[in-house]
Every structure is written in C-alpha cells, then in structure tokens.
Amino acid sequence: MNDLGRLEDLPADYVAALTAQNLVPLWPNLRGVLPPNKPRISTRATHWPYAAIRPLLIQAGELTPIEKAERRVLVLANPGHGLDKMQASAAMYLGMQLLLPGEWAPSHRHTPNAVRMVVEGEGAWSTVDGEKCPMLRGDLILTPTGLWHEHGHDGTEPVIWLDVLDLPLVYYMETSYHVNGGRQDVTPGHGERSYARGGLLPTPVFERANKAYPMLRYPWADARAALESLAANQPEEQAVQITYANPQTGAHAENILGFYALMLRPGQTLTLPTRSPAMVFHVIEGGANVQVTDQNFQLAEADTCCAPGYTPVTLRNASTTQAAFIFIADETPLHQKLGVYETRP
Ligand code: 1HN
C-alpha cells in the first residue's frame, strides 16, 4: 500500500528524457517526503558532556589566536545530521565559545538570531546594539537578527558560554550573511533595569520601549529568583518553568527559537508533553537525568543534550536534597508561526 512504484520500474529512456528536462516523477518519492503519521527525523538524542568539551576548548585557545578565529567556538554537532552540517536539530545550532582574558571578538551583525548562556568565568561582556552587557554565569544575553555585537574580557580567567542560534534554518532559507563593523559606542541604560520587576513597564513618555528588543540581558539572579518564587507560591505545580519573553509584548524573546528556565524540585521526575519542536537542555545548576525514549543521559552541571521533536522526554533531578536548574531552548515560536506546532498524547 505504501509502495507507489520505484524509479527503477520506469523505462530507462523515459527517466533519461525526464532528467534532460529537469523533471522528476513524484510518486516514487512521495512517501519519503510525506511519511505516514510522523515525520522522518534526522535529529538524534545526543549528549555533550562539559568535561569532554572544556579541555578541547582550552586547547583551541592555545592553538588558534582570537584574531584568526574571530569567534573561538567548538560546535555541538548532531551526528544524525552529519557533523559537517553543524546542526543540533533542524533549526538549532549550538556552540561553546571561549574568550581568554584581554581578548576581543570584533563587532559584527548577521541575519541569524543568537543567544548566549554564560557557563563559566567572570569579567567578560558583550556589547549588543550599544548596550554593554556583563556576562555572569547563567545570564542569557540576546543577539537578535541584525543587531551589532562584540565580546570583550577584562577578567583573569577563561570565560566560556553556550551559543544558541537559528543558523540552520536561516542558512537553509538562503538568508544567512554577516556584516563586519567597528567598535560600538556604548550608550547608557540597561534593559534589565528598565524591566526589573514583573508587570511594571517603563512608560514610554519620550523614548525607548518601542525598540523591537527592549531587553537584551536576562540576569540569572532574576531568573532564578523568579523560579524560586513560582515554586514557593505554587507548591503543587509540577512544572516550575519560566519563558524568556520580550517584556514589552509578552511574546517569545526572539522570533524563531524559544528559551526557558526550568527548576526541578529535589527528587522530582517530570515527563514533558510530546510535542513537534526539538529541544535542547543545558544544566545551569545541579544535575539531571534526561530520558529520551530508550536513551538515558546523566547530565552534570554545564552539560548539554538535545532531543528530537515528536519524542517523549522525562527529566529527573538526580538529587533528593538540592533543586536543579535547567536552561531549555526549543523551536516552538517557529513551529507556532508556521502552523505546524502540535502536541501528541
Ligand atoms: C556568531 O556571530 C557568534 O557573535 C557565535 O559570538 C557563534 C556561529 C555562527 C554564526 C555566527 C558570536 C556563531 C556566530
């Protein structure tokens, strides 16, 4: 019933005549592009332990000067897509970036949207659209499409962060490019201070706030406090999770990928709803067991893993005494905007 005929069933001279006219018969390929009930998924559940990445990234610092690399990054590539594709999932790119004391990663802007999740070290900063954002562990810093950004480091120890971009999608659309620029002038003011308290927005009497991205840095101290507050206020709530949002619109912080922070209570097991978007999990604090169908990953602090869409995922806090805090990235805004978002029982 699923066999709609093979290319080899057709006369060779007919196939050759089609090929000569840049024509292809659909029926031998129809089931491949439109499989029954569930998409064909290349994304494989994959675990990238930080203990394996870190020494190789430090070695990259010895092997390649920043002036040569511009961005010194090891890409977390999903073997299901082929390592050369530099994809964690269909739409998500992940990389671990190293900046050494005194280094500067020059200013540029590009069409893909990026965020950084700071993993280790102190003293680095990112200037995004003229706003100088300190990079503290667990901070989320946005670099939305088209905004200038550069990174510097005034501290004494290596700084490492996780980059999450929608590069695979933007590249696939043939819309990926960058522009180099000079050092940015830093303007006063910080979005996270203008939007320091939930539900209280700055009244835009004279200026600002009508920027497309009014808040560029989401301090971990604030995100963590929001999770603690949510957990204390709703002790029965299963999923203690926050969404990184544009405080002016309430929409996702960026257009294509979604970003969240999840607190797993001590000893908690949480089965996530099965949904179409692929997901990335990165441990900010504590540890977690991530089960993706029949695969089981034990994530330590700073570890990262991904799970394909349409796949059940269960998270378990390894500790019975300490909460675990997990950063999540997924493809929800993209799926919702395209109308392909779905949940499965
Ligand atoms: C990029 O601009 C950065 O600015 C990091 O730090 C990783 C990966 C692909 C394309 C652009 C950065 C990137 C990137």
Key features?
345 residues, alpha+beta, Jelly Rolls, 2 domains, six-stranded antiparallel β-sheet, 23 strands, binds 1-hydroxynaphthalene-2-carboxylic acid
Rg (CA only): 22 Å
Q: Please list the strands of the largest sheet in the order they lie side by side.
A: 1-20-17-22-14-13
Mean pLDDT: 96
Structural class, please? alpha+beta
| Backbone shape | globular
Number of strands: 23
DSSP helical segment count: 8
What does the main sheet amount to? 6 strands, antiparallel
How is the CATH topology of the largest domain named?
Jelly Rolls
Brief summary:
With 345 residues, the protein is an alpha+beta fold. It has eight helices and 23 strands. The model has no long low-confidence stretch (mean pLDDT 96).
Plain-language structure description:
The protein is an alpha+beta fold. It has 2 domains: 36 residues, no CATH class; 288 residues, Jelly Rolls (Sandwich). Helices cover 18% and strands 32% of the residues. It contains 8 helices and 23 strands. A 6-stranded antiparallel beta sheet has the order 1-20-17-22-14-13. Strand 6 and strand 7 form a beta hairpin. The longest helix has 14 residues. It is globular. The mean pLDDT is 96. The site of 1-hydroxynaphthalene-2-carboxylic acid (1HN) has 11 residues, from strand 3, strand 4 and strand 10. 1-hydroxynaphthalene-2-carboxylic acid binds next to strand 3, strand 4 and strand 10.
